[in-house]
Each structure stands twice: as structure tokens, then as C-alpha cells.
Amino acid sequence: MRLYKTVTVFSTLIAVFAVVFGFLLLDAAALGTGLLRRFVRSILAALSLSVSDSLLSGAFAVAGLLSIATGAAVYVLGTRFKAPEMDDESA
To answer: What domain range is 27 assigned to?
Structure first.
């Protein structure tokens, strides 16, 4: 049961983090402002790279949707986990 609880807690934690981060990425894609977008812009400027706003917005949107989908997949897989001590007849 200890393994079951550990897997459940950490999979839920990872899933929630991934979904919240996905929404932050979608926010950066939709608004075109915000701390995350400015941070990426400053890193790109430090590397002497210039990226158009539409390409950056598209990249943020795709990354945000992938992060949300990953969070959902981790949550689903985490809820399907069963410990060896768990009885199959009670399900």
C-alpha cells in the first residue's frame, strides 16, 4: 500500500503541475504579454535570435496543449495503478 500511495501522490502532483504550466503557456500564447513570454524573449535576444510573434505564439500554444495532455495522461495512468495488496474482487 505504501507504493500505491506514493505513486498516487506523485502522479497527481505531476499532473496538476503539468496542467497549470500548460495554461500558463496558453496564456503567454494568447495575450502576447506576461512574464513567461518576456523571459523567453530575453533568452532569445541574449542568443541573438529573432523569432516572429506569430511563431512564438504558435510554439507557446502547442507546448501548452501538449503539457495539458501530458498532465491528463499522467493522471489517468496514475489512477489505474494498483498495488499487489489490493484485492481485484473489490473493484
So the answer is: 2-82
In a domain, 90, yes or no: no
Is 75 part of a structural domain of the chain?
Answer: yes
71 vs 9: CA distance, rounded Å: 14
The confidence score (pLDDT) of residue 87 equals: 63
Q: Say which residues have a Cβ less than 8 Å from residue 67's Cβ, sequence separation at least 6.
A: 18, 19, 21, 22, 25
Is the model's pTM score more than 0.85? no
Q: Mutual orientation of helices 53-80 and 35-46 as an angle, nearest 10°?
A: 120
Q: Is residue 89 part of a domain?
A: no
Q: What is the pLDDT of residues 32-90, one digit of tens each?
A: 777 888 888 899 999 998 888 889 889 999 999 999 999 999 999 888 877 667 666 55
> Contact 83/4 with Cβ under 8 angstroms?
yes
Does residue 45 fall inside a structural domain?
yes
